[in-house]
Design goal:
two-stranded antiparallel sheet, single chain, 10 helices, 9 strands, 18% strand, 287 residues, alpha/beta
Length: 287
């Protein structure tokens, strides 16, 4: 199974509830959930012909799987993430030479706990591709701050540089939508920012427009969420952070219970969990 759910977006990443083991959650993200978007990464990289001439900047790079895949194609990759040091530590294990790995990707890699401004400078090479791979359109306000972040990234690129934005597809084609509603129900009355909402058709275009970018193509990719069992599914979904408000409003036991119940309709005879989803990407270019 190569089917991952959206982590909270870079500008809005929140603080996990008290008592949460951040390192364990980051590991669950890297080992269970992150791989779900592999088909999306592959489709984008294939379309944009990522290779040895690519100098890629990954916004909100997390534990670095998308960067690793680009580096394996020969790209030079830089990842920034200001709010997930535990995930960034896992990215360093995957990508940096000092990790001591026998088999490392071919491209150069740089990882920074910060934002685009922290990789700028007179000696910094310009980027010819930018990705923001955390899908938006899943919770209210999850694109807030993204346009400003992209605006600060533009000076690090040249004219016509592709900027990739990602969003959830239509709710009727995203089975996981029904499971995400559990987070909203339990977090009530904390239902404004951070509550589930259906993806809208022009979510990505509106972000690009606010950032002064020009849309230049889009695509849809099937990214099913597949888990070995219910426990893995619960751990993977919790690792996204989308249920943090629910845990804060109730407790971990209650969230685990209702999440397990919501997953039951998606269990197959062999005990695996399977939820088909569609994600959309937009390629926008700097002017």
């Amino acid at each position: 199974m190569t089917p991952t759910l959206a982590q909270p977006h870079l500008p809005r990443a929140g603080t996990p509830p008290r008592g949460v083991d951040r390192c364990a959650r980051a590991r669950d993200w890297a080992e269970i959930q992150e791989r779900m978007l592999v088909p999306l990464y592959e489709a984008v990289y294939e379309r944009l012909e990522v290779g040895s001439g690519t100098r890629l900047l990954g916004l909100g790079c997390g534990s670095g799987l998308a960067l690793l895949m680009a580096a394996s194609r020969g790209a030079s990759v830089t990842g920034v993430d200001p709010s997930a040091p535990e995930r960034l530590a896992l990215a360093r294990e995957r990508l940096l030479p000092e990790a001591g790995l026998d088999a490392r990707p071919h491209g150069a890699a740089r990882l920074v706990e910060g934002g685009p401004d922290d990789v700028s400078g007179p000696d910094a090479p310009g980027f010819n591709m930018v990705t923001a791979f955390q899908p938006i359109g899943c919770t209210a306000g999850d694109s807030e701050g993204l346009s400003g972040l992209l605006e600060s990234t533009v000076p690090l690129t040249g004219r016509g540089t592709p900027v990739v934005l990602v969003g959830w597809g239509p709710p009727e084609r995203c089975t996981t939508s029904s499971v995400l509603r559990v987070a909203t129900k339990l977090a009530d009355p904390l239902r404004s920012t951070g509550s589930w909402r259906p993806a809208l058709r022009d979510d990505l275009e509106e972000v690009a427009q606010r950032a002064g970018l020009k849309p230049d193509g889009s695509g849809r990719v099937a990214c099913p969420f597949g888990y070995a069992d219910t426990d893995s599914a619960v751990r993977g979904l919790l690792s996204t952070g989308l249920f943090d408000a629910a845990v804060g409003a109730t407790d971990q036991v209650q969230v685990d219970k209702e999440l397990t119940e919501a997953l039951h309709p998606h269990m197959r005879r062999d005990g695996t969990i399977w939820m088909p989803n569609v994600f959309r990407y937009l390629i926008a270019r700097t002017r």
